[in-house]
Amino acid sequence: MTIVDVRILVEGASDVEVVSKALQGLALGSEYNITISSIIPTTNLEIAKSAAAGADLLIIATDADRVGRELADRLFRELSELVGHVERMKIPLGHDLEHIDVELVRKELKNTLVRAGLKSLQILPEYMALRNQLLDLKGKYDMLEQEKQNLENQLQELEQKYEELMQEYQRLKDENENLKILLDRRSNLVKIEDAWKQIFPGEEVPSEEIIGKAVEKLGLQGRVIVGQGYIYAEEEKLIEEILKIVYLSMTISKPEEEGIKEVEKVEEEEKLEEAEVFEERIEEL
86: part of which helix (H) or strand (E)? Predict the structure, then answer.
């Protein structure tokens, strides 16, 4: 059972002697389960606050005159919030230790303790109601704590699943990128005639042989493939560049070919003329 901490506040040192004498005849520990932890002789409010703070029960023992009552009222107002309960006790006037009736003080002290106990019982229903509320709140807290634990477990599972899904998403994303690259490469296979007419409309389409030689001279074997009327390149722009080079080459070589043909034609005409002259001479002979 919990021991009740009781402190007694008196006006002066002589009151300490009187109260101590009265306490000697009381079995407070066995009868009331309380202990008098200190007797505080002071009328200073700040000292009283410091000494009384935290007590279960504070007894303010002052003289029964007007000054004592006023002091008790002031201390009661100021100290009520610092202790569990405050109770007043009157000490008879003219209380020198040699002349005071210690038994009367002892009786007043016991009555004060009884009053404090009875007043405490008055708040018992409120205490029980608060206790029941506390138990209800504790039950709700335990339930919420369990729900919190369940939610944390679910969150952990969801985070794990999310991580797995993210890994799967990344795998599919990489796979999709690879497929896209393959599709892009496949889309770079175009028909030579279509590509040529798109770049050089109205111009004669060169043969695969000419384009193949251009690829070979440019050292693009493997990166560019020509055959079956189609051309493939790793980059679509590369097809356009090769066809432009072929066109430029054809444009440059075309006048040379025409010049060669013209020379051959002149030589052939000269040969025909020589043959005719030769035939005429034969006829004359």
Answer: strand 85-91
